[in-house]
Amino acid sequence: MKKIIQFILIFIPWFLSGLLFSSNMSYYQSLNLPFFAPPGIVFPIVWTILYFCIAISIFAIVQEYRFKDIKGYRNALISNYIFNQLFTFFFFTLENTFLGFVDAVATLITALFLYYETKALNKKASLFLLPYIFWCLFASILSLFIYFMNL
After folding, report:
1. CB within 10 Å: which end of the chain, N or C, has fewer?
2. What's the domain range around 32?
């Protein structure tokens, strides 16, 4: 039971931006979108799966190590978390496609750092971050196209 509660405590905070800054899907739909842009309904589904994978990875690390003893991992995780959470605010609340793009790139970069820090601690746990990295790459490309198509 203790492990289930720990996992839930790791999983829940990733949904914070969705709770604080409701995603304005009507704003997304109103933009000029590239042909490869997914419909708005895809995002909550993909992010739920990704947050679950991220939580599995974090859970594996915190089961093995004391959080305060893994400074590089901790810093990568915190910086990635902050950038990840800020995207919804920049893109949907401020309706700023440029800040959304910059933040998407920052999220991708910090996700790569998180992957490498995780891989150094637990290779299996790092594999759960690969879908997140690929999605962050896709999101960065999508954000770039959205920015330029809506100048």
Report:
1. N
2. 2-149
> 15 is written with which tokens?
């949904």
Helix (H, G, I), strand (E, B) or coil at 116: helix
CATH of the domain at 12: 1.20.1260.100
Q: What is the mean pLDDT of the chain?
A: 92
> Which residue type sits at 81?
Y
Q: Tell me which amino acid residue 52 is.
A: F
**Distance between CA atoms of 37 and 16, rounded to whole angstroms?**
24
CA neighbours closer than 13 Å in the CB half-sphere of residue 26: 1
Among residues 82, 103, 101, 78, the alpha carbon closest in space to that of 147 is found at 101
pTM for the predicted model, two decimal places? 0.91
What confidence tens digit (pLDDT) does each residue in 103-127 have? Answer: 999 999 999 999 999 999 999 999 9
DSSP character string of 71-95: HHHHHHHHHHHHHHHHHHIIIIIS-
What's the pLDDT tens digit per position in 5-32? Answer: 888 888 887 777 666 655 677 899 999 9
Candidates 89, 79, 131, 83; CA nearest to 107 is 83
d(CA 141, CA 146): 9
Q: Do 80 and 111 form a contact (C-beta atoms < 8 A)?
A: yes
